[in-house]
Amino acid sequence: MGKFVSKASMGNKRAARTCKGKGGAVIFEGEDDEDSEDSDFEESESDDGDVDSDDESDIGDFIVEEEELASMGDDIHDMSFEDCLDGSSKRDKNYKNGKVYVEQPYGSIKLEPWLIFTDREAFLDVLRDYCIQEGFGLSVEKADSRRYTVVCAVEGCDWGIHASKMVDKFSRAIKSLTGEHRQCGRLEVNPIVTTKWLVGKLLPEIEANLDIPVLTLKKMTQQKYRIQVKTRLFYKVKALAKEVINGSFSESYALLPRYAEMIKDTNPGSYALITWHSDPGDVQPKFKACFFSFGAQVRGFLKGCRPMIGIDGAHLSGFFKGILLSALGIDGNNEIFLLAYGVVDTESQESWNYFMRNLRALFEREGCSRDDWTFISDRMRGVDLAVHENFPRATRRCCAQHLYMNCKNGGWSGELFHKLFGIAANAYNPFVYNKAMEKITEFDPNATKYLDTCTEQWSRHQFDPAVCCDHNTTNYVE
Ligand SMILES: [Zn+2]
How many domains does the chain have? Predict the structure, then answer.
């Protein structure tokens, strides 16, 4: 029981704003009570002594529509929206008195009695925009499949709106709009603002710039809609908007097999493989790993690059995480040249084996059975075994920068050690290397012992000149 009833029962027709439509009358009656409609009808007839007989029938149409429907039984189901507008029925005037809501830009939305909306959703969307525009919150008095009655959330404010279902059973019309906000003030933080609403409003901005900072979105919301929203909500808004724009991550994974086929169709010589988990209990196959190399990449590498392959893994930050593995070469101009890439679930020997196996298959398909490539990487788990399993005669270099970091973690650091390590790593002949190592032994014999355990090449004097490449770090891969 809310304000509507109390006003109606007081019979205060002035407080309840009366609207004169084309047909003459109507409005706001206390419809809060399920069975109050007929009595309201009678009350308005007797109260409004100045309405003529045509108006009275209109009033009747408006107010009893739902009850009338119920009593009409099944024959109403044969009626369509058009049937209601043939110009002859009394019900027709329902629609003629009102006007269909036409979308208005935010900031100039006006509501009035007998404004008709295509359906409940459309009405609620406009009402939400209107409340945010006017800066007040809502308190629901009644909301069911037929009627919707809300008042201003501020205690004591007499603003209220009532809408109900029309005879076509879909469209909604505002039946009454009462009172006004006198001392409500403007809500800066409006609980009616939802993530979904923000996504709808900010979608064009996010679509124009997917990297738009959340603080910019916050500022735009403040300026355009004059509302305050917590910054963290905009992260969610951005993520949801991206899903609307790009489709979700899961949808993208489902498209991978088609993507792979498309690559092979449109780029002859390309290698594209998607691997799925073979769990017999699974109805839907689950993505496991993928490996891609475009025709131009593998041929370009075999024909124009130095025989050295840099490999590295990078953690992916998307919803499903995973590791991006990549293999890069260096061309004649010392520029980096992407050879192949893949996505796997974890950085493990199994994953590296998958990657190396496909790399070997890729080369073999191009007629290259060479297995003495030089691989450079940091000392990641599983890489060494996977490389030698697929390329038995491969040479391994490890990144000197990563090796130095390992030393630092082992307790050997400082300006002197850094300098000596640098000399040893960049030594082009054994003499310089041995001198540097002697000094490192003087610094700490354990450091030399540790460096001697490194089976991969890390000092330039160890490198094979035939590789024509003296990179001793994986900087170019990263
Ligand atoms: Zn108010």
Answer: 3
Smallest Cα–Cα separation from 436: which of 417, 450, 414, 454? 417
Can you give the pLDDT at residue 61? 30
More confident residue, 69 or 400: 400
Q: Is residue 461 part of a domain?
A: no
Here the tokens at position 136 are 């007040």
Q: Is 412 part of any domain?
A: no
Distance 138 CA to ligand 1 centre (A): 9
Q: What is the mean pLDDT of the chain?
A: 80
Say what the pLDDT of residue 453 is.
86
Same domain, 299 and 219: no
CA distance 131 to 318: 36
Asked if 371 and 307 touch (Cβ cutoff 8 Å), the reply is no
Ligand 1 geometric centre to CA of 33 (Å): 23
Distance, CA 156 to ligand 1 centroid (Å)? Answer: 8
* Distance of alpha carbon 427 from alpha carbon 445, whole angstroms: 20
403 falls within a domain: no
Q: How far is the CA of 135 from the centre of ligand 1 (A)?
A: 9
Digit-coded pLDDT (tens) for 332-370: 888 999 999 999 998 888 999 999 999 999 999 999 988
Region 68-79: mean pLDDT is: 40
- Residue 419 placed within a domain: no
Residues 235, 285, single domain; the answer is no
